[in-house]
Design goal:
heterodimer; A: about 160 residues; alpha+beta; 60s Ribosomal Protein L30, Chain: A; five-stranded mixed β-sheet; 4 helices; B: about 140 residues; alpha/beta; Rossmann fold; five-stranded parallel β-sheet; globular
Chain lengths: ~160, ~140
């Protein structure tokens, strides 16, 4: 059963029948985390790096920003028994798909925000597929943590 | 088993960054030692068991290659693997590092993932499986 993760959204699950899916990862970044020991995982799709540009918005929807969404992703997965040390971490996106994204360099800034937050919190990335100018789709199967990536114009691949 | 690692670099900020990077890498680390020069490294190496040395190539008084040469003269120290850390990356230089006894090299600055891959390559795989990042000493957001 596919569970859609929208833009500025996050879903967590330990239901083995669930597959978390997010589309339209342009300059946005998708962060997928999975703990094999408890068969639980989560997928975050955030848009912007820094919540300080709009704290009110960040309160209403922390998933919009890297610095509010990523801690939320991990902390929510902890509630399902996930442990950071066991998690497989995948980062996808950070492209510049249109002129505006390229001009403001949002994709790159999003990626740098992820690196900075992970650096500060001792998280290493197990796999990443970032940059370029193609839109991406990311899928995480909760049953076994298998993750699939599709870049526009290319075949889907397991990562 | 967790590895005891010595960092040799004449830059204090760089030693701090390397320590943090190694702790974040997920490699099982016991104690992380640091010194600012090759002479102090040799003194420490004779007092303390260390599994791995990360040494900066470019240091005054005794550079990284000179430290390796000194270690090679000692019956015990010669078996300790040394990874050269460097901002240089020329093939010639890398060949020189390996020819003169470095186990490997890693270009600075490096990421936790690069540190993990390099340490596992040199040390022969994970120590007691992946212990995960060290979260014991710092204030973390999550």
């Amino acid at each position: 059963m596919n569970i859609l993760v929208g833009v500025a959204d996050m879903k967590i699950s330990n239901d083995p029948d669930s597959v978390l899916v997010t589309h339209s990862l342009g300059s946005c970044i998708g962060v997928a985390v999975y703990d094999q020991a408890v068969h639980a995982g989560g997928l975050l799709h955030f848009m912007l790096p820094d919540s300080s540009i709009n704290p009110v918005k960040a309160q209403q929807n922390p998933c919009m920003f890297a610095d509010s969404g990523i801690p939320l992703l991990f902390k929510t997965l902890y509630q399902l028994g996930g442990k950071k040390q066991r998690m497989r971490v995948i980062v996808v996106g950070g492209a510049h798909v249109n002129d505006q994204e390229a001009f403001f360099n949002i994709g790159k800034r999003n990626y740098l925000a992820v690196r900075k937050i992970f650096w500060k919190n001792n998280v290493i990335i197990d796999y990443q597929h970032v940059g370029g100018n193609g839109s991406r789709t990311l899928k995480l199967a909760i049953k076994d943590g298998r993750t699939r990536l599709k870049v526009s114009g290319e075949s889907e691949l397991e990562i | 088993m967790a590895y005891n690692i010595l960092i040799v670099d004449d830059s204090l900020p760089m030693r701090a960054v390397i320590k943090k990077t190694i702790r974040a890498s997920g490699v099982s680390v016991g104690e992380l030692f640091e010194v600012s020069n090759g002479k102090d490294a040799l003194i420490l190496l004779k007092k303390q068991w260390l599994d791995l040395v990360l040494v900066d190539y470019n240091m005054p008084d005794m550079n990284g290659l000179e430290l390796i040469a000194e270690m090679k003269k000692d019956e015990f120290l010669k078996s300790i693997p040394v990874i050269m850390t460097t901002v240089e990356g020329s093939r010639q230089r890398i060949k020189e590092f390996i020819a003169k006894g470095a186990a490997d090299y890693i270009r600075k600055p490096f990421t936790p993932e690069e540190a993990r891959d390099k340490l596992y390559k040199v040390m022969g795989g994970a120590a007691d499986g992946d212990a995960g990042p060290d979260t014991s000493t710092e204030t973390l957001d999550f």
